[in-house]
Amino acid sequence: MDSQQLTAKIKDFAEQLGFQQCGIAPTNIQSHVERYKTWVSQNYFGDMQYMKDRVSLRESPDELMPNTLSVISVRLNYVPKPAKFAHVLADPNQAIVSRYALGRDYHKLMRKKLAELGKKIQSLGIAINYRAFVDSAPVLERGYAEQAGLGWIGKNTMLLNKDAGSFFFLGELFTDLPLQPDRTTENLCGSCNSCIRMCPTGAIIDEYTLDARKCISYLTIEHFGSIPESLRPLMGNRIYGCDDCQLVCPFNRQASATDQQDFFPRHRLDRAGLLELFAWTEKEFFDRLAGSPIRRIGYERWLRNIAIALGNAPVSPSIIAALEDKQHLTTSALVKEHIEWALKQQRSKLSSSNDVSLPNKLIRTTEKIVGHLDQD
């Protein structure tokens, strides 16, 4: 079996395992490494010190797996249908959870599939060493995916695919097989700047450059401390992650839904009210979110995020009462600080009889968002 035949067989195996696309990348992606180094030098990584500390591993595949010669890159869709994007965007009392986090944690599922891909290659009688990665090591996954022909890195720094948008997970199999790399695809962003214009906090500070310190996904997931007050009103009702730059991307109008049951919503997270989630006890949080990627932020940051969303919600005596109750119950200084801010916002709106909640910029364009994915 020559290299071309083997590559075709690997892609067939990947499709059998449920991946939507598979490509081969070279180990040398130096242009991506240099761009990453520039990004780190500008301190855009915020609290994520590990992104600075492990730069060398990102440019040296051999340090992650000795004798790596090729990288097999795959993608897997994750949005179920109907996605209900427009539904939650239009209701400020509902919690917006990034769609990738509605179901079970993707890391284990993807790694298992990649390990099975390695075993299938071995079943051909081919001697292969491999190691699977799914957002679990210092790997420039979007760089490898771009070099493998799975798409191009767009202005929002996400990987975009002409026919599938960006609602998919990426994974890699480092191998010691000398495979022929795939051709890269053309960058089709053109003059479109929708992702930059519609970012709630202005985190996409320039084309292809994201300042994580302003990004709602970073603030709600990766950031441990107090969220800057200037950014809190801009977060709206987003309590875990943010999909806005993807929702307005024209290529996501062609996005395909997933049939992977593990990615379907659990515990009504696709339609839960803010007050409902704020009422969860710590035990309920950990019990209900077992197996969920949300669990990793812990109960304290969960309450911090929801408190901000409640402060941004339309004025409501029920919200004020819930915030006051939780303020007395919690022992966390971080949570208390954000509850106090939320109460101040609610009481200000109540006393002025003028709800000054910032409208979601996407509401007026919901009829264009992700098209058929929102349809039953």
Notes on the structure:
This is Epoxyqueuosine reductase. [4Fe-4S] cluster 2 binds at residues 199, 215, 242, 245. Monomer. Cob(II)alamin binds at residues 58, 135, 156, 159, 170, 217, 242-243. Its cofactor is cob(II)alamin; [4Fe-4S] cluster. The protein has 16 helices and ten strands. The protein has two domains: 3-91 and 103-175, no CATH class; 209-245 and 264-366, no CATH class. With 376 residues, the chain is of the alpha+beta class. α1 (3-16) crosses α7, α14 runs parallel beside α16 (333-352) and α15 (317-329) runs antiparallel to α16 (333-352). The chain is elongated, with a radius of gyration of 22 Å. The strands form four sheets. It has a four-stranded antiparallel sheet with strand order 1-2-7-4, sandwiched between helices. The protein has a two-stranded parallel sheet with strand order 3-10. It has helices at 3-16, 30-41, 50-53, 55-58, 61-64, 85-90, 106-122, 141-147, 194-198, 216-222, 244-247, 274-278, 282-288, 298-312, 317-329, 333-352; strands at residues 21-25, 70-77, 96-97, 130-133, 152-153, 159-160, 168-175, 204-206, 209-210, 238-240.
List keywords for this structure.
two-stranded parallel ribbon; 376 residues; 2 domains; 38% helix; 16 helices; alpha+beta; oxidoreductase; single chain
